[in-house]
Design a protein that fits this description.
Among the domains are: 63-402, no CATH class; 625-814, Cupredoxins -  blue copper proteins (Immunoglobulin-like). The protein is mainly β. The model is unreliable at 1-26, 28-45 and 338-372 (pLDDT under 50). The chain is built from 11 helices and 43 strands.
Length: 823
Amino acid sequence: MNSKHAGLTATLIGALLLLQPAPAHAQAGTGTGGGKRITAAAPAPVGKQILCPSQQELIRTPELVSSNGRLRATIGVTSQLQRMPFRYPLQVGGKSPQPGSPAPTFIACYEQWVRAFFSPDAIPAYPGPKEGVSYVDPMVGPTLRARVGDVIELAFLNTIDPSNFGNSIDRGDAYGCDETFGGGKQIYPGGDAYPNCFHGSTTANLHFHGTHTNPNTTGDNVFLEIVSYKRLKDEPVPTPGSFRASLFDAFFNQCEARLLKTTHSQWPFSWDDLPSLWTKEQQRLLMKYDELPGIGKKLWPVNARQLKQGAWPQYYFGSYPYCFRLPQYVEPSSTTAAATATTATASLTPDAHSHGAGSAELGSVSDADEGEPSPALIMGQSPGTHWYHAHKHGSSAIDVSNGMVGAFVIEGGYDEAISKFYDPAGSAGGPSVNWTRNQPVLIINQIGVSPNLMTGGPGTGQDKGPDFSVNGRQNPILTMQPGEVKMFRIINASSRAGAYFIGPPKGFHWKQIAQDGVQFHPDNWTAASNMDRPFLLAAGNRADLLVQAPSTPCASAADCTVQVYNAVDPGDLPASATSAPPPYKNNLLTINVKGTAITPPMPIMNDPAPFPPFLKAIQPQEVIGTKTIEFSSTPPRAVHKIDGQQFSGEVGKVVLLNTVEEWKVSNASLGISHPFHIHINPFQVTETFNPNTKLADGVTPMYVTAMPADGTPLKPGQCYLDPLATDPNDWKPCTAPPPPPANPIWWDVFSIPSGLGATDAAGNPINGSDGNQIIIPGYFRMRSRFVDFSGYYVIHCHILAHEDRGMMTVVEVAPLRSPYSHH
């Protein structure tokens, strides 16, 4: 909770809230101030109630656009007072109202302190508060626009004011997790323990979701923790307009020159490659920070230990230079192909391999600097709709809920083909991607100020999360001409819920052409089944959608509304077409069809964009290794684990660079389809098993764990899964799954089907030897190319409260074979 407002009383809510108690909007909790422990109180209203806006126009987010092969800009995080919406009343009929609930539920707005992205370089500039008010409406971070092959150079600045957020702990296990209290009892952390709990909400970093790039050093390195400049009150905070030039521009020039020498783009290698003035200042500030009264875990000694091990330091104070390349795939020549083969099978001495977390190593890069051929990329950066967000363990859920998300549009031949189809003459004389650049980017979020576990008492939790917003607005209005086609770039940046798109509004048509930033193969692009179909975007998923408006205006606003279900599991969807709510339909976006009709209507593009060769399907003969990985959430207060372990920073999976593996990813949780996400490399799904599948009536289970007690046979289509099977591999589809399609879709987030709790013929749980109910896991199988970039990155659940609370592990992609290898 925001400690400045902890003492406000429920009288601020007024009669408008039907005398309901106000929710606990805990921004964070535990902290220190001069050694004094500060805790948040709940439930209490946070800030004053203010007028909610009427339905607003969809805003175009300010942008940072690359030029001359680079995207160089300042991007930062700060504290901001925003007008935030909340669903009221808290209870209807003794239950928490869910997203999309009809009257008497309504939206009430409050002033709230949030953590937000900003950029002084974005165009247009971010709007400030309107005259007479101190707050702004919620907005997402600036849209990053770059091109495959560009170098990304972002000077990151953290100026979040900790005093606005209960002084949430950034200093480790001496104080532990955030806390909230209400009704004379502690609501959170309950059974959670550091580091797998909510904490450190004013320390930040960036994850560039969907990038195939360097996962180390100044690349897509999610192990970084960048403390706010405002933790040291006597140190000046650099102005955004000056600090990049004084600290990082010279480094960016050097980084760019080095990255353009090679295809693999891994530099810098060591801390010595960074500006010495900045690294010395980092050491001074971190050591000074470590001497603050009440400090527990000191940060500089951790860095010093990592440096001694040859690793990349984890902790930084106030600023950081992100610099990496979006690698452009080029068909390899015989020379580069030979270099790639040599790199993939190199045998070097053990001393050449540094094992520190986040270290960068790839023998071929230094070889290239000496004039040797650079290896060819096996894959490349896929052009498409990607995104970025804060990814600091312990605070990713609150940061994303606050709105610390943004689109990352990476352009290439895909955009050129679509633009040429819809604007062959290049109207306005713009670039070859002129048409796609003017299409709407839609960032879905569930904006809020507290993870559910911190909002505590019975009946007050909102287990499906806040209502959806788009670019910070709830059910905004987007205008289209009759007969017009637009390309919707849709990102589900919600920290929790999936958005199940029910189907196009009346009279509209749509066709999906990309998933998770990777364009469809022609087989999928042109498939008749791809037209007007419903689809799920789990948290973290993206979709590119060609949407065609009807040739006449809609008869009513309802006919022009894109509706979705809030879905974390298929069980959240209606059991059948005739079932009654809940779940409720959520109004995501209203399309206002008006203006001059386009005659004849624009066609939906059915000629697919040229398909990059590196996206060819992974063949079975490419697979040289297999792994299993299990996600689980154990009751009563869910403990989220991967392979039975909570996140510790230790390596959970090791893969050899430039190899292909097939993984079986299972889910032993009930009622939660955990969205599996892996960084750096996308994957293809070859098989799924959902033990909760229903027959065609939408009600009868396909799989049973006990034969009927009266001896009657199973219904047609049903089959038996033996819960006491000695081999869990017997838990699989009752009929052989169909072979995977010739060209499967590429993903970087995929929902793992939830498990089935075994019951006997009377419906009683069947328990195992440990006394707990036997759960038959759902699973999917995936194939991925772990290629081009060695290093350490993570796999995790993209329900970010689960990630913060332990459902994450480290993948090491090891670049070297043993020197004793016979290869």
